[in-house]
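Problem: given the chain below (325 residues), write out its structure.
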Amino acid sequence: MTEPALASPPRTRIDALDAARGAALAAMALYHATWDLGFLQLTPENYALTGPGHVAAHLIAGSFLSIVGIGLWLANGRGLRWHPFLARLARIGGAALAITAATWWWFPDAYIFFGVLHCIAVASLLALPFLRLPPLVTALVAAAVVAAPFWVRHALLEEPVLSFLGLRTIPPRTNDYVPLFPWFGLVLLGLAAAKAGAPRLLRGPLGRWQARSGLARAASFAGRHSLAIYLVHQPLLLAILSGIAFLTGPHPRAGLPQFQRDYAAQCERTGGRPDGCRIAARCTGAALRREGLWGLGGFTPLERQRAQALSQDCYEAATGNGMAP
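Solution.
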């Protein structure tokens, strides 16, 4: 079965695709700003690390990787263009290594060893054979890759050296983790969708659409220079927000929501009632702030004794007994 012929060779630049990449980049910058605000204690907690934050991160990463698959087909669907492909791979791979080196220096306990750029570089190589396979086969392999983390288990896969696969039961500690499973599957899905729908895309409204408004032109520009913007935006955000944190100090409630959750969990593990534990957690947090004990880097023996007494009083008032959490 031959592939449907295109009216013209696949185009490497489509305004709609560039704008979509730019929109994904803007969403990523917003997510990173949220993470930075929490990291610098400018918000009560790090909302990027909450449930909705994790969902947003997955949606953003998935959109980027799907666009990678689409772009791979548009650039190489008529035959692999080795020079542009290798030049792009070198840029992305070099940027990924630079991010690893920089984060190892600044965050040695959680440096980025396989983030989104690492995944894009490796996935681009692994996707090359699928340029010649039917879209249905590519989509089926993509589905298997996405599903693999839910059913593939083996003791060998728990080795730290294989963390880049994403098949460990306990994820590694890192500030950005985009392993091959399941994320390579999103690249393949994008490639399969582009291969199946490229003729219609190029001839349809999306293929003909041109960025004319200011916002559309800005999004398209960002999409065309996504790697440079990706590399620059986070250091710039951190620098600006660090300056703000230096001037304002931490948010007065920074860390309080997490403290209340941890307190309530510990309280329940020692036999406390959930409702009483939640009340005691709120009471203790408020008491520590009132006594000037909140936000201290560490307690002196007298401060620790006073903090424990406040916790005991709150627990007894909330639960009606004397069992400390």
